[in-house]
Amino acid sequence: MRKKRIGGIPVVESGGSRAVGNISLRDVQFLLTAPEIYHDYRSITAKNFLTAVRSYLEKHHKVTPIRSGMIMCKRDNTMKELINLLDSEKIHRIYVVDDYGNLDGVITLRDIISKLVHEPHGYFGDFFDGVLPLPQNSRV
Predict the structure, then answer these.
(1) Closest by alpha carbon to 79, among 113, 103, 102?
(2) Worst-scoring range by mean pLDDT, 67-76, 89-98, 121-130?
(3) Are 104 and 98 spatial neighbours (Cβ–Cβ below 8 Å)?
(4) In what residue span(s) does the CBS domain sit (predicted)?
(5) Residue 103 lies in a domain
(6) The domain containing residue 66 runs over which residues?
(7) Neighbouring residues of 7: CB distance < 8 A, sequence distance ≥ 6
(8) Which of 6, 10, 108, 124 makes a 20 to 30 Å CA pair with 94?
(9) What is the per-residue pLDDT for 81?
(10) Which helix (H) or strand (E) segment is 50 a member of?
(11) What is the CATH number of the domain that holds 98?
(12) How far apart are CA 64 and CA 24, in angstroms?
């Protein structure tokens, strides 16, 4: 995530494209705040990370998106539905899946905002530089 400068990644089944989880920057906090759930964080797999963090959260009765699973939508969901879902779940990304749960894409809050609001290049100066990169095909 650091190399690609992104805030989250989907986790898919080994050898397939069925979505099984999501790891966000918010979830990585457990590398610092709950080291007892695993010992060698540099070699832990995404699947083991999800399992360990979910178990830790259940034991401590905490509700977060990583515990409840990925938030997903279908291609035919409306923008209004996506915005309401992002707001109600307090998340920044929704994964698009097909009828079989295979990962089709991701829609972020930033994607939606960039489609609804257009500012000329440089409108905010360098205020947003380095926050999160826009997609290369972005016209914002």
Answers:
(1) 113
(2) 121-130
(3) yes
(4) 63-124
(5) yes
(6) 2-116
(7) 1, 24, 25, 92, 93, 108, 132
(8) 124
(9) 92
(10) helix 46-59
(11) 3.10.580.10
(12) 11
Q: Please, are residues 7 and 1 in contact by the beta-carbon 8 Å criterion?
A: yes
In a domain, 128, yes or no: no
Q: Which amino acid is at 22?
A: N
| Amino acid code (one letter) for 103 | L
Residues 6+ apart with CB under 8 A from 47: 11, 14, 20, 21
Pair of tokens at residue 108: 């972020």
The answer to whether residue 132 sits within a structural domain is no
91 lies in a domain?
yes
What's the number of domains the chain is made of?
A: 1
Question: According to the model, what pLDDT value does residue 66 have?
Answer: 59
How many whole angstroms separate alpha carbon 123 and alpha carbon 118?
A: 10
- Section 44-51 average pLDDT: 82
Regarding pTM above 0.85, the answer is no
Total residue length of the chain: 140
Q: For helices 79-89 and 109-116, what crossing angle results, to 10°?
A: 130
